Amino acid sequence: MNAKDKIRAKTVITAHANADFDALAAMVAASKLYPGAVLIFPGSQEKSLRNFFIQSTTYLFNFKAFKDIDPDAVELLVVVDTRQRSRIPQVRPLLDRPGLRIHLYDHHPDTDDDLAAELSVVRDWGSTTAIIVDEMRRRSVVLTGEEATLLGLGIYEDTGSFGFNTTTPHDFEAAGWLKGQGMDIEVITDLLSSELSAEQVTHLGELLQNATTHDIHGVDVVITELSTDRFVPDFALLVHKLIDMENLKVVFALGRMGDRIHVVARSKHPDVSVGQICTSFGGGGHAAAASATVKDKTLAEVRDDLFALLYSQINPQIVVESLMSRPPVVIEDDKAIADAVELMTRYGLKDVPVVDAAMRCVGIVSHHTVDKALSHGLGRLGLSEYMSRKFETVPAGADLYRVMEIILGRRQRMLPVLEGETLIGVITRTDLMNMLIDEPARIPDSLLPERRRERNIGPMVGNRLPKKMLALLKTAGELGRDMGWEIYAVGGFVRDILLGRPNSDLDLVVEGDAIAYARRMADLLGGRIKAHVKFKTAVVILADGQRVDVATARLEYYEYPAAMPTVELSSIKMDLYRRDFTINALALRINPGRFGQLVDFFGAEQDMKNKVIRVLHSLSFVEDPTRILRAIRFERRFDFQIGGQTLRLIKNALSLDLFSKLSGTRILHELQLIMVEENPLACLNRMQELGILEAIHPLLKLSGERMQVLMELVKVNNWYKLLYQKPEAEPWKLHLLGLTMGIKRDQIGQITSRLRLTAREERDFILLRDQIGEALMKLMSWREDRSRLSRLCAILRPIPLEGVLFLMARSKKEHIRRNISQYLNRLRDITSDVTGDDLKTLGIRPGPAYTTILARVLDAKIDGRATSREDQLRLVERLWRTMQRRGGAQCEGT
């Protein structure tokens, strides 16, 4: 749809993805409170709902797809039957728009993901539709029979036809009012109790056969499973049938459908909130009915997690106060790193809370971080610079469920316990594990922080990699199996598979001897290797030019800030931990039998989902300040944001003047990588914003004029690339010309020296600037209507390509820009049709005259005065006669 054809709606209404009848009905009900609003259908997995919607609702109500509306026109977003940002992906582009007003109508419990809104109508009723109907009654809204029936359908479904414990008198009152408006109960009954198909009967039989009852602290919980490679429509309907047939109180149905696990849960027991449990799986719902879809775990892992969550929730007598250690060992926020090391060593602590003068917890610091900081000579720095400010806390009365969710689910090793805002105790992971050790439900391995978070993305790898690269991966994995070592593809290669971006830079990590492995690979595939014994790495160069970097799984530590790494043997986890950012700390198993298993210790997938660049530890930039430039490069390449703590650490590293300790060679290398990015100017702008350019050298500043020229340079270079001509310009030279524009000649050496250009690079760069300056003066006197094109070519021909492109970008005169483009596109490749041999045939003795004559002939061809070979030969004869008359023997080269 063209932009001009899109609907300009000021108000839109939507509900959660995978909508049920209550969500659909609540949207229609809300449209009565917001006349003229457009309804955005969020999609549904329920087959009966889809068919019902397609067959009738589309014709009755103003439902549209989000792509049909103009998002810039939307002023008010109304969300019903949810408040969670993550459950309304269909309108995600609206959520971050400044000035957007949001109204919410919901009956689900609060979550951390809830949207902020100017109006939030939340009531603990059996259905959201009943909440909105109550408001309609107050406003005396009149409905048609079809509308009343649809709204009634939402209330009947979400209250289990008034059979769920979550049903309230308000739901009955709303249904009674709808009956008075013409609600047809027979239609509702038919829709909610439709006959099952033969396939559905088979699936229901499987659920019945697999159902097992578990006594969890006195509550009978039924857990059943279904496994199929295809999606099962109306899975929730089958669960309802199961509950009705067996008269179940609490049921969790786990359905493996393809590569996802669908969870449908129902509860009639007051001590079991299925909504809370499904929220932990990334879904949502309320106490009596909830659902979730899990994408990155197996059926067995979801089952294990479910048991752990059930045992923690149905155990209210165990509260935080009975688990915590009090009084806590703390350190004040005005202390230094050395003080923290001394305190934590004395008490043998891995983590300690940081408090202010009022005993409020303002951070958490780890022994690992402060110990490394001390080894870098940073012991006198303030502790607050390196503590973690992003952490969870709990009140003393919180139950075990919340503790497990934070310590095991979110991997926070120490949990501060508060009374009001005051820190009164802490719970560690060890405290939690010691308490759970006697529980009948052991904590499953899948919840332990040490366990590798793995899911199989083999199908994704197969679909997104070229066949040749896929075959190489599998061959590399088979070689690892034969040598008895685990092999992983790691880093950006894996990251870009997940992001769906092409990347042929293959890095492999071997839990073994990388150099021995590389030699075997080269022998097997007919390549050659370059080994780096000191770093225990090698590069395999295959016959087709493909390079494979192979490294030994290792831990890198840095002897002093900004030093090159010293290498020790270690495991894949420690190898990944040494990397720069979480999004690059990914590994992919490629050994047969485990091919495609993704290893993600540090939450990279979640950071990619949240579009965040995050370092792995707080000393990352102290150890290697070039990571600051990489952070900016990745931020702009992927349109991510540098995380808050990471940004703070960047600013702290700059305040320590760590760039002065970096070699110019390393800085230049990172700048060269930035200059070949798709949007280098965005990177340079970010560097200017953070003060990085000046940290590299005080003369490097992005003035308005320089920025304007750099913008033109990008446009000009992109235009030149489309010509597909050789040679290609070197982007770093182009941008360095722009960055140094206006700097005096006697100062330019300071910058080239800081960047450690080689003697030849420095000489060529300074010469290039001089040539550009001379050409600028000559171009100022060049006139399109009076000057010949051959003169333009003579000005530009001696200058390297980067200088010509710079002149084109620098020039403000359109006719000069146009003719420079003509020079690059056509004129510079023109050659004369006569050669020295032709001159010899005409009896002209070799000598300086050859150069003069051939140059004059070429000029004549460029200017259109001698376009054919015959014309050029005649011109040669005339020139030679003239030269003989004027110079005699000198013209003959004698």
TrEMBL record:
Domain CBS: 324-381, 387-446
SMART domains: CBS (SM00116)
Manganese listed as a keyword: no
Keyword field contains Hydrolase: no
Any matching Pfam family: DHHA1
Alphabetical GO biological process terms: tRNA processing
Cofactor: Mg(2+)
Keywords: CBS domain, Magnesium, Metal-binding, Nucleotide-binding, Nucleotidyltransferase, RNA-binding, Transferase, tRNA processing, tRNA-binding
CDD domains documented for this protein: NT_ClassII-CCAase
Any GO molecular function: nucleotidyltransferase activity
Protein family membership: Belongs to the tRNA nucleotidyltransferase/poly(A) polymerase family.
Entries under PANTHER family matching the protein: A-ADDING TRNA NUCLEOTIDYLTRANSFERASE, POLYA POLYMERASE
Protein's name in the database: CBS domain-containing protein
Organism: Pseudodesulfovibrio alkaliphilus
